[in-house]
Specification:
With 376 residues, the protein is α+β, with helices and mostly antiparallel strands. It folds into 2 domains: 236 residues, P-loop containing nucleotide triphosphate hydrolases (Rossmann fold), CATH 3.40.50; 123 residues, OB fold (Dihydrolipoamide Acetyltransferase, E2P). 24% of the residues lie in helices and 32% in strands. Helix 2 crosses helix 3, helix 2 packs parallel to helix 4 and helix 3 packs across helix 4. The structure holds adenosine-5'-triphosphate. Adenosine-5'-triphosphate binds next to strand 2 and helix 1. It holds the Pfam family OB_MalK.
Length: 376
């Protein structure tokens, strides 16, 4: 086991025309002994580049990477005590599963052959692939190849696992099954793991902690629940959660946040978080909005149901603040008027119906409109 540290790590690529791309920008991150850390963010945010630098497949432009307090930047990939699993599995097609799994051990250790064989067989058993040992990758399903790729990483008994979207080629059912299995194996082995995904569900369900990247910059490192409940900024708030948080641009006037289509009163206590900020983005998660029968106070808003989207366990209901209808009688559903609420159960709601949406103050998130920083 080992802890992995990235200190002020920057990676710059220079394109053919001389343009510089800062793929990773001053990233500092510690992955604790035995921790499962998920690096998550949209396409192009620098996740793979980060992982590749840790693996030694890419040089570091600035900063250092350390394993157990020793800088490893100058070590060859094979000398880093790190195993990487790729999305593409990267199995040797002409070798059997057994050969694929034992190859790394034969190359890099002085382990006797019979010990390697035992080790490969017990790992194969753990991964449920012992019956596949004599097949070649071409004779395996995607899910089986994926297990072999993982088994090949595990058999080396590394200090650190790096995984780059290892489940993204699997179908949804297998992916969710493998998610649980991977977590179990990682926990059993207690190996420090850095796992890259663009899928926030994967991040939320698998990570002990998640590190959210955007544009090469670290946005927040937190447990999944912290990132959900206390996002550091608007980017994290919008990235975590499905459907995404609703955002409204408002201006503080007296004790109210004033929006083009509604006014939201703030209690003294909540207002005190704003400091001097007057341009405030109000955020509310779809699952925190309630539909109620009667408006009781000014946190309840008259709306019209625009679209109902059934999602099995309930409905995503797109609502529009009440307002003028256009000449054609259609609702004017510009972005600033519509928002989504997730309502569980079998409640019957139909497009065109009026609805009263309750936006509870305790569930409201507030952000500085200019910087995106969370104010509450
Ligand atoms: P994805 O989820 O799409 O794989 P990512 O978050 O893993 O994305 P990276 O692959 O790390 O992102 O890329 C980060 C940025 O660096 C992107 O703008 C990408 O175009 C750029 N980049 C990556 N590798 C190179 C390279 N070899 N040369 C030039 N630019 C690169």
């Amino acid at each position: 086991m080992a802890n992995l540290q990235l200190n002020d790590v920057t990676k710059t690529f220079t394109e053919d025309d001389g343009n510089e791309i800062v793929a990773v920008d001053d990233l500092s991150l510690t992955i604790e002994d035995g921790e499962f850390l998920v690096l998550v963010g949209p396409s192009g945010c620098g996740k793979s580049t980060t992982l590749r630098m840790v693996a030694g497949l890419e040089t570091v432009t600035d900063g250092t990477i350390s394993l157990e307090d020793r800088v490893i930047d100058d070590r060859q990939p094979a000398d880093r005590d790190i195993a990487m699993v790729f999305q593409s599995y990267a199995l040797y097609p002409h070798m059997t599963v057994r050969q694929n799994m034992s190859f790394g051990l034969e190359e890099s250790t002085t382990m006797p052959d019979d010990e390697i064989r035992d080790h490969v067989e017990s790992t194969a058993e753990m991964m449920g692939i012992e019956q596949l040992l004599d097949r070649t990758p071409g004779e395996l399903s995607g899910g089986q190849q994926q297990r072999v790729a993982l088994g090949r990483a595990i058999v080396r008994n590394p200090s650190v696992f790096l995984m780059d979207e290892p489940l993204s080629n699997l179908d949804a059912k297998l992916r969710s099954q493998m998610r649980t299995e991977l977590q179990r194996i990682q926990e059993d082995l207690g190996v420090t793991t850095m796992y890259v995904t663009h899928d926030q569900t994967e991040a939320m369900t698998m990570g002990d902690r998640i590190a959210i990247l955007n544009g090469g910059k670290l946005q927040q490192v937190a447990t999944p629940l912290e990132a959900y409940h206390e996002p550091a900024n608007r980017f994290v708030a919008s990235f975590i959660g499905e459907p995404s948080m609703n955002f409204f641009e408002t201006e503080l006037q007296g004790d109210r946040l004033v929006h083009d289509h509604f006014e939201y009163p703030l209690s003294e206590n909540v207002r005190s978080n704003l400091g001097d900020t007057t341009h405030v983005t109000l955020g509310i998660r779809p699952e925190d909005i309630e539909l109620v029968n009667t408006a009781e106070d000014d946190h309840d808003f008259r709306t019209v149901v625009d679209v109902v989207e059934p999602v099995g366990s309930g409905n995503n209901i797109y609502l529009a603040f009440e307002g003028t209808e256009s000449d054609s009688g259609e609702l004017e559903t510009d972005d600033s008027r519509t928002f989504v609420a997730t309502i569980g159960g079998l409640r019957q709601v139909e497009a065109g119906q009026p609805a009263i949406a309750r936006i509870p103050e305790e569930a409201v998130h507030l952000f500085d409109s200019e910087t995106g920083r969370a104010l509450r």
